[in-house]
Amino acid sequence: MSDIILSENRDGVLLVTLNRPESMNSLNRELLRRLNQLVSEVGVDRTVRVVIITGAGAKAFCSGADLKERATMTPLEVKQYIQMIRNTFTMVENLPQPVIAAVNGFAFGGGTELALASDIRIAAPNAVMGLTETSLGIIPGAGGTQRLVRLIGKGKAKEMIFTAHRAKADEALAIGLVNRVAPEGGLIDAAMEMAARIKKNAPIALEMAKYAINYGSEVDLGTGLAIESNCYAVTIPTKDRIEGLTAFREKRPPVYTGE
Q1: pTM of the complete model beyond 0.85
Q2: Which listed residue (65, 124, 172, 202) is catalytic?
């Protein structure tokens, strides 16, 4: 049996592939356990500068929860499953490295919630995204009601969740759900190109910028500015800051080491 999650470090860009194409890369408990473990390891891996998450095959990024497995769970097991998926996606969101979701095909429920937990979303032309849980008698339970609002606004988020709307790639781009739509057949290339642009920059600076944005956007402006100031202070004594200034003076590309 093939590995349920594939990972490949491409010169500092970790390509993570959910590998259950026979079930549209749905999230069963084993896949979640493996993803949780992988994210824990990536967070302390200095060889990884950027993470890309995608799904195996051309049909689906992730269709959400494995409903066949869900049907066999007790109410207690359902609660434990939801807690696990919520915690795992929060771990993805809190990774020190920038995370790009390369959304190939369908991304419903937990699939869209995983994309929302990522920093940047790039969609294939055939991508379709939506938080469709209300059509199944439940609500988004892995951060969707919170992250979607923060990304596209309360009114549009309510519309999408209340109607279980499925947004195609062009609409997702128009409402700000994704950052860009890749050319046909060029999704991973587009994600890798974005990752390469990010990877050129200083790792500690990227981590601090991500922290300042994530946490500063949740508080009042004064507190946010204090968070930004503290994050800036972390970069001052780094070797990378000196390297950036030296490279600028010497008119050459900087070589950052994350120190």
Answers
A1: yes
A2: 65
Distance CA 19, CA 240 (A): 37
| Predicted confidence (pLDDT) per residue in 171-202, tens digit | 999 999 999 999 999 999 999 999 999 999 99
What are the structural domains of the chain? 5-199 (3.90.226.10), 203-250 (1.10.12.10)
Place of tokens 């379709």: 128
Long-range CB pairs of 39-48, under 8 A, 24+ apart, other chains included? 39/88, 39/91, 39/92, 39/95, 40/91, 42/14, 42/95, 42/97, 43/91, 43/94, 43/95, 43/96, 43/97, 45/14, 46/203, 46/258, 47/9, 47/12, 48/9, 48/12, 48/13, 48/14, 48/97
| 110 classed as catalytic | yes
Which residue of the set 102, 113, 141, 169 is catalytic? 113
